[in-house]
Design a protein that fits this description.
Order of helices and strands: HHHHHHHHHHHHHHH
Number of domains: 1
CATH architecture: Up-down Bundle
Number of helices: 15
Strand content: under 5%
CATH superfamily: Amino acid/polyamine transporter I
CATH class: Mainly Alpha
Structural class: mainly alpha
Radius of gyration: 20 Å
CATH topology: Amino acid/polyamine transporter I
Length: about 400
């Protein structure tokens, strides 16, 4: 057990990538607008996405290959589809998480410089950390960040409960109008994360194998489960915070990153007291910085591997190239959409949910195929859960598209 705890890494990186916009923004908004009414959606989407995320580290440790290697085995067309989907979404995802991080930095450390400059500074810091330390530094930092985030969130929830004087309804709600349905789909799109994060997880697992000799499949699954369960509890925590502090307050969130961040922190402190500013601010900024850092590492890592497999050789389109492209692209999108944070997040999260069935189907097809050793193919229970998960994702996508 101690060796497994010591070897934690990719699972915490998953948590660092997952616990961001989905939790801080979407979960808090879910609590603020619906109370605990969408708790069913949070629990169901985590349940039905679980096998498809878990197949990432399972396949990587069982075969020594990433999911991207396997996508090519399923057909070069599958890998090409992944390349196009990732290219279409990575800039939006990176910009969305960085905008929120910059807004929180402006609120916490001062607005003496512009939001645009805060964005560039944060991206430069993240790029520098990744280029200097690569995976090893990311692995070490994430352990500290996730522990800090978990403790600060637990403290904030405990304080909110102690201050609460009203009865909390657990009545569950099914959104009916188009705006509410769109929010539900956006909420589930990144809860706990987009499904293509399974690819990132497999790549991080391969990297972990290079630094730890005994990172076998059982250790990898234990690591992943720790991170996954942690994201569920943190998601519930942020919904509770939104419910306890913001529900029925009459406050409307702004689509501007800087204004939203101030609203978020000020709304907490106005209810919990100014002394809670540091706790809330630390939880929020730590959440978003970890997501910004991990996504900035994962997308270039995935695109590098994809281009190598597509061209059957190493090319100039390496990790540094894709990081530079992502850095420049994110800044350009930010300059045009900085005042429309809410719109940008909505687009990114809905796109993630609409593409989720594709990743669910190919991940399930792969783990059940001859490319996976028999010992690590799904059990009957996992087969059933996977079928239900695919039906769940397709069903909600169809429901959303028919309500447009």
């Amino acid at each position: 057990m101690l060796s497994r705890l010591k070897n934690l890494g990719p699972g915490l990186l998953f948590a660092g990538a997952a616990v961001g916009v989905s939790h801080l923004v979407q979960s808090t908004r879910a609590g603020a607008d619906f109370g605990l009414g969408l708790l069913w959606a949070l629990l169901l989407v985590n349940l039905f996405k679980y096998p498809f995320f878990q197949y990432g580290p399972r396949y990587a440790t069982a075969t020594g290959e990433s999911l991207l290697d396997s996508y090519k085995k399923l057909g070069k067309g599958v890998l090409l589809i992944y390349f196009v989907v990732n290219l279409a979404t990575m800039f939006t995802i990176q910009t969305a998480v960085t905008i929120v991080t910059a807004g929180l930095a402006s609120s916490l450390f001062g607005d003496f410089i512009s939001l645009e400059l805060w964005t560039i500074i944060i991206l430069i810091i993240c790029v520098s950390l990744l280029l200097l330390g690569r995976y090893k530094l990311l692995d070490r930092m994430m352990k500290i960040i996730v522990i800090t985030l978990t403790l600060s969130t637990l403290i904030a929830v405990s304080i909110a409960f102690s201050k609460n004087t009203t009865e909390i309804s657990v009545l569950q709600i099914l959104p009916k109008n188009q705006l509410e349905i769109a929010f539900l789909i956006a909420f589930m799109g990144w809860m706990p994360a987009p499904l293509d994060v399974a690819v990132w997880q497999s790549l991080w697992t391969i990297e972990k194998n290079k630094t730890v000799k005994k990172y076998d499949t059982k250790t990898a699954l234990f690591d992943f489960n720790i991170g996954y369960i942690g994201t569920i509890f943190l998601g519930i925590g942020f919904v509770l915070l939104g419910t306890l502090v913001m529900f029925n307050s009459g406050e409307t969130f702004s689509n501007s990153a800087s204004v939203f961040s101030k609203q978020l922190i000020n709304m907490y402190t106005s209810n919990l007291g100014n002394w809670a500013y540091v706790v809330i601010g630390l939880a929020a900024f730590t959440t978003m910085f970890s997501t910004t850092l991990t996504t900035l590492d994962a997308s270039p890592r995935a695109m590098t591997k994809t281009t190598q497999l597509l061209f059957n050789k190493k090319t100039a389109l390496n990790y540094n190239f894709w990081m530079a492209i992502l850095f420049i692209g994110s800044i350009l999108i930010f300059l045009y959409l900085a005042s429309e944070m809410g719109f940008l997040i909505k687009i990114a999260t809905i796109l993630s949910f609409i593409t989720a069935p594709f990743f669910a189907i190919i991940n399930y097809k792969l783990i059940s195929s001859k490319h996976t050793p028999k010992a690590w193919r799904p059990s009957l229970a996992f087969h059933i859960l996977s079928w239900l998960g695919i039906l769940f994702l397709i069903g909600f996508c169809a429901w959303y598209l028919f309500t447009l």
